[in-house]
From TrEMBL, chain A:
GO terms for biological process: tRNA processing; tRNA threonylcarbamoyladenosine metabolic process. Component of the EKC/KEOPS complex that is required for the formation of a threonylcarbamoyl group on adenosine at position 37 (t(6)A37) in tRNAs that read codons beginning with adenine. The complex is probably involved in the transfer of the threonylcarbamoyl moiety of threonylcarbamoyl-AMP (TC-AMP) to the N6 group of A37. TP53RK has ATPase activity in the context of the EKC/KEOPS complex and likely plays a supporting role to the catalytic subunit OSGEP. Atypical protein kinase that phosphorylates 'Ser-15' of p53/TP53 protein and may therefore participate in its activation. The keyword Lipid metabolism does not apply. This is non-specific serine/threonine protein kinase. InterPro entries: Bud32, Kinase-like_dom_sf, Prot_kinase_dom, Tyr_kinase_AS. One of its GO terms (cellular component) is EKC/KEOPS complex. It is an enzyme of class 2 (transferase). One of its GO terms (molecular function) is ATP binding. The keyword tRNA-binding does not apply. Belongs to the protein kinase superfamily. BUD32 family. It catalyses: L-seryl-[protein] + ATP = O-phospho-L-seryl-[protein] + ADP + H(+); L-threonyl-[protein] + ATP = O-phospho-L-threonyl-[protein] + ADP + H(+).
UniProtKB/TrEMBL annotation, chain B:
It holds the Pfam family CGI-121. Belongs to the CGI121/TPRKB family. One of its GO terms (cellular component) is nucleus. GO terms for biological process: tRNA threonylcarbamoyladenosine modification. This is EKC/KEOPS complex subunit CGI121. PANTHER family: CGI-121 FAMILY MEMBER, EKC_KEOPS COMPLEX SUBUNIT TPRKB. It comes from the Eukaryota. It is found in: Nucleus. Keywords: Nucleus, tRNA processing.
Length: 222, 190
């Protein structure tokens, strides 16, 4: 039986891998923030966990692939969820693909997939909050895989175009700054998003222009 | 009521529920088929001191689902935070998509016509004795635990848990059911 193994540690908490009730799982554990008043901290932590578990489950109901939520423990501040096996991050996939011959067609196909998924996500008024290529996965065989969206720890629900545009902007910046020669890919992504998402999505893309003009000041970090 | 006289083939899994957080209970799942006489909830089995939790099979997607429900129930028991009054009712409640206890007992508990039941035996320590005891009293047709998949009433489950077609196409039913179970306290699915 596998003991809990630390995968990664961020500002919010730790992510472990473990075998739980016979299955390989991922455990997201939130740190208590000592500088906060303990009651407030536990409340905030609980609210964030609920938001994350909700978003994961609701996305599933819309047909967006996410890890299944297996258990939520508010005392230990843990969410136990499915471990997506045989996967890589979009980040690594783009990196690998970019190094091969004529990556354009594969990247464009990927871009369309992303556009569709985000149109679905935003169409259901879910703001991911941290859209990067590290928060999207592909499973083997990668070329044929659907996008699996993970890490809804900063997610929220909002109908307005503003937050959705910011969501897109964060992803755009993430792709363009991490991977060279991805301008076309982003174009294809946004085009597919607008096509798949209808009028509301087109509004968001329009809003995106304004967000771009505002620049870095729009991001919550950096 | 006369002896619960149904044929039993005994069954497989011995499982230790999650050790973290002090939840250490051994559990054995038995699938009992061709139940000829209705077993009142704890009935005959309880009389002989073997507490055995009985769950309606068609509503079960997988044994993992049951493990998750049991784990949660035992944890609540330990923390003295159960919603219901007994571990049995708690397990049933955990399986249900709704917050209504009566509703969950109706849906997942046994009815008069039910022939297939999943028996869950939980104890702190020596489970094999309990299971042997259960064995000696109950004669029924036991099936391989894996056969539970054949008894699943998918249509009913999809309806009960209110799953949409988009969800079923892209994912599997087990994940959908367990996600709902896990988020039940703070998420209403329409």
């Amino acid at each position: 039986r596998m003991v809990r193994e630390l995968i990664t540690q961020g500002a919010e908490g730790r992510v472990y891998e473990e075998e739980w009730l016979g299955r390989k799982v991922v455990i997201k554990q939130r740190f208590p923030k000592k500088y906060r008043h303990p009651e407030l901290d536990s409340h905030i932590s609980k609210e964030r966990m609920k938001a994350e578990a909700r978003a994961l489950t609701r996305c599933r109901s819309f047909g967006i692939k996410t890890p299944a939520v297996y258990d939520v423990d508010f005392e230990k501040n843990e969410i136990i969820m499915e471990k997506i096996q045989n996967s890589i991050t979009l980040r690594n996939y783009i990196y690998e693909t970019s190094n091969n011959e004529s990556p354009e067609s594969k990247l464009n196909i990927l871009a369309e997939k992303i556009g569709k998924v985000l149109a679905n996500l935003h169409g259901n008024h879910i703001i991911h909050g941290d859209l990067t290529t590290s928060n999207m996965l592909l499973v083997q065989p990668y070329d044929a895989s659907e996008i699996v969206v993970i890490d809804f720890g900063l997610s929220s629900v909002d109908e307005r175009a503003e937050d959705k545009a910011v969501d897109l902007y964060v992803l755009e910046r993430a792709i363009l700054s991490t991977h060279p020669n991805t301008d076309k890919m982003v174009e294809v992504l946004l085009a597919e998003y607008a096509k798949a998402g209808g009028k509301a999505a087109q509004e968001v893309v329009k809003r995106l222009d304004e967000v771009r003009l505002r620049g870095r000041k729009k991001l919550c970090f950096g | 009521m006369a002896d619960a006289s149904f044929l039993c083939k005994w069954l497989k899994i011995l499982f230790i529920a999650d050790k973290g957080g002090g939840v250490v209970k051994r559990m054995q799942l038995q699938l009992i088929n061709n139940l000829l006489y209705r077993l009142p909830l704890h009935g005959k089995l309880l009389k002989h001191g073997v507490e055995c939790h009985l769950i309606l099979c068609p509503m079960i997607v997988s044994t993992f689902q049951v493990l998750v429900a049991v784990n949660r129930a035992v944890r609540a028991l330990r923390r003295k935070s159960m919603t219901t009054r007994s571990v049995y009712a708690e397990i049933i409640f955990n399986l249900s998509p709704t917050k209504s206890i009566t509703d969950s007992l109706k849906r997942f508990g046994l009815g008069d016509d039910d022939q297939n039941i999943l028996a869950v035996v939980i104890d702190e320590s020596d489970i094999s004795t309990l299971v042997d005891k259960l064995n000696s009293q109950v004669k029924g047709q036991i099936c391989m635990l894996e056969e539970i998949n054949m008894l699943t009433d998918e249509e009913n489950i999809i309806k009960t848990y209110k799953m949409k077609s988009s969800e079923i196409q892209k994912g599997n039913i087990e994940d959908s059911v367990i996600s709902r179970m896990a988020c039940k306290d703070f998420l209403v699915m329409n």
